Amino acid sequence: MDADLDTLCTALYVRADDELKMRPELARRRPRVGIAPKLSDAELITLAVVQALLGFSSETRFLRYAVTIQVSLATSSTVTADLRAGDSRNDTDVA
């Protein structure tokens, strides 16, 4: 991974994580029972922002790119489902 991109990802994650801790009302509500999420809300926010900043309109293409730069991710279907669950408009492109 490029050092600048790595630094940006780290800074975005820390900022999102700190903000979610300071303002828990921003975090998504999670059921008390069920399957535990594989990504935290801060990790999901970081991935969504990086995807947008790099200009990827397709989650599939972004995940392929992320794997090539050795980003550790959950399965692509989990990431896509979590991203869509957080997007009330559900207007993302999957191709």
Topology, please?
Blueprint: H1 3-22, H2 41-53, H3 59-68, H4 76-86
Helix pairs in contact: 1-2
Describe the structure.
The protein has 95 residues and is mainly α. The chain has helices at residues 3-22, 41-53, 59-68, 76-86. The protein is globular. Residues 73-77 and 88-95 have low confidence and may be disordered.
Tags for this model:
disordered C terminus; 4 helices; 95 residues; mainly alpha; single chain
What summary fits the major beta sheet? none
State the separation between the terminal residues, measured CA to CA.
Answer: 24 Å
Q: Per the principal axes of the C-alpha atoms, what is the gross shape?
A: globular
- Given helix and strand content, the structural type is mainly alpha
Residue stretches low in confidence (pLDDT < 50, at least 5 long) are 73-77, 88-95
DSSP, total strands? 0
How much is the average pLDDT? 75
Number of helices: 4
Fraction in beta strands? under 5%
- Give me the oligomer status: single chain
How many domains in all?
A: 1
Helical coverage, percent range: 55-70%
* Whole-angstrom Rg: 13 Å
The succession of helices and strands, N to C, reads HHHH
Summarize the structure.
The protein contains 4 helices and no strands. With 95 residues, the chain is mainly alpha-helical.
